[in-house]
Amino acid sequence: MTEPPPPSLSPEQAVDLLEARHAGATAALRAALERFIRTGTPPTPTERTRFRYPELRVTWTPTGNIPFTRRAWAKFQGPGSYGTTVTQPGFFRRYLLDQLGPLVEEFGATIAVGDSAQEIPYPYVLELGDEARGEVATGELARHFPTPLLSAVGDEVADGLWAFEQGQPRPLALFDAVRVDYSLRRLVHYTGTDWRLVQPWILLTNYQRYVEQFVRWALEELANPDSPYDSLVLPGGGVVRPGLDAAAADALVAAAPWTRFQMPAYHLTRRDDAGGVTIINIGVGPSNAKNITDHLAVLRPNCWLMVGHCGGLRQSQVIGDYVLAHAYLRRDRILDDLVPPEVPIPALAEVQVALQEAAAQVTGERGEALKKRLRTGTVVTYDDRNWELRWSQERRRINLSRAIAVDMESGTLAAQGYRLRVPYGTLLCISDKPLHGEIKLPGAATAFYQRAVGEHLKIGLAALDILRGQIGSLHSRKLRSFDEPPFR
User: Domain 193-479 belongs to what topology?
Assistant: First the structure.
């Protein structure tokens, strides 16, 4: 007689079980590592079966009318079984519940949790990353413990390259556990902070001066007893909290070893559930832009915005004017194989409107007055900082595109947002006009920075405040494919 299937778990029960299984697996792996380092005794094959990620399985077998929703996420494209491995379920608890709830309540899906066949690589359970402790070399550890395998880490689901196999579940999420763990470790390496502190609202910039302005603004917020913000986490782990006197706060900021990290991050956390703000100086160039967003995407942030400098391409523009990108001429080349240049990267209405409204709020200008300072148009993103030396080759393409500004990151960040289903936007400030003889000379550049950076940053922050109130519509259907996993 065939046994009846086990009863479906509720979303809360499922996440509780994921947490328990993940905690048990990582504890067993850490214990075996400690024993091997201490005594040289490797894990047995039976013990290794405990070093596995938990698997979340969701099954939808529709009966009666098919539910209809305009929501862009937490819905099925078709009946069947969907699965993914899960890491750090405690951190992702709210996200998991947000995704599972509608699948059960609206679609009547059933949930099961079990152990997967995917082993947890041993470096991912060592919080300090000191896998070579004592006299044990990493090569010895790799002989007896699961290691990160590049063959098991990929973006096939996000890039639409996964192949359906009969009897196997369809993808439930864009990223499986080993891909997430890989990126969590990379975030620590590049940003100099714990990945758990990355906030769901992200500002990306290409100049340290924006970070300096952010820190100044953050300290003012922490000194305000009515502010919703409750800590500023610095690269290297230092934390500024409310109640700290100004001199001590300044000393903490000055002592932060941000120069040790390639893309230092600062996290301003909130005491409510609306989510704080992270700012990251990604440096210059499309390679950096792709690199950091590959890793940020696994955290499923609500939005990332580019706030940085650009070159103005039109005679009517003035240094200090703003450019709100509504299209991108992608000459960065770095994503051409993943998102071919002929694929349009749409502007997201919610983000565009929020940026424009934020500019009006911060500058106090509207209508024609605002249009004189804020222009929408196409931004050209290059991989060559000295593109001007190829002006005779590039002139016609730029002219055909009707581009109004040029930079080295925005097109890449927008394409990554489109590719990895993270809402995105770009607001740039014109710092020079290379085609019109207005170049960055030291004196003029300093005056520009002092005048423009603070206002520009405030516009980005105001835009995020606006978007916080529109979270339901922000995760747009424009970012979803017709063969999409149920999870956002």
Answer: Rossmann fold (3.40.50)
